[in-house]
Design a protein that fits this description.
187 residues, alpha+beta, Jelly Rolls, six-stranded antiparallel β-sheet, five-stranded antiparallel β-sheet, 11 strands, 35% strand
Length: 187
């Protein structure tokens, strides 16, 4: 078993069909439950809508399916055992428009076994030939204060410990939508 409290980061990809399923389920949950955007509890800055889904997401099978996928990835990396369980603590979607970004933050600085999962459902197109274009990139800092950076594409998802400080650079154009789920790992 790997040490959960070491620096680690998992990046995987889901299919475009799965992305479409997730987006459709999120939209249905928001509309059915008349959920309003709430931006007061966010590290997002400017021109965003954020919808807290945690109390309504039980109405959709897709989150359970994603939870199994996440657990399997953690098991592959030997970060959990088959006897561990994921307990969903938060679930929200962020829809960021031109100019939006996330300030540097962590979800929990204490030493508990907990993870952040970010699914990229929509990202603005950008010129991949321009290596200096950081528009909308995700970044995080390791415990050794090393900067790690990731340029997301539709279908990418990230898993990392809640204590890692992270954020995004401002996006220069377009729309970015993420599904964000935080879990505690019960052993």
């Amino acid at each position: 078993m790997n040490n959960f409290f070491d620096d680690w980061f998992i990046q995987e990809t889901i299919s475009n069909d799965k992305v479409d399923q997730i987006k459709n389920e999120i939209e249905k949950v928001i509309i059915t439950n008349n959920i309003e955007s709430n931006t007061y509890l966010t590290s997002s800055t400017g021109n965003i809508d954020q919808y807290n889904l945690i109390h309504h997401i039980g109405q959709t099978y897709i989150i359970d399916e994603l939870s199994k996928l996440i657990f399997n990835k953690l098991q592959e990396k030997k970060l959990v055992t088959k006897n561990d369980e994921l307990s969903r603590k938060q679930c929200w979607t962020v829809i960021g428009n031109e100019g939006s970004y996330h300030t540097v933050h962590s979800h929990n600085a204490s030493f508990i076994k907990a993870i952040v999962c970010v699914f990229y459902l929509q990202v603005p197109e950008k010129d991949n030939e321009d290596i200096h274009n950081r528009s909308g990139n995700f970044f995080m800092f390791s415990r050794r204060n090393e900067l790690m950076e990731f340029s997301p594409k539709v279908g990418d998802f990230l898993i990392f410990p809640t204590w890692i400080y992270h954020g995004t650079y401002p996006q220069l154009n377009g729309l970015r939508q993420t599904l964000n789920i935080d879990y505690t790992i019960l052993t």
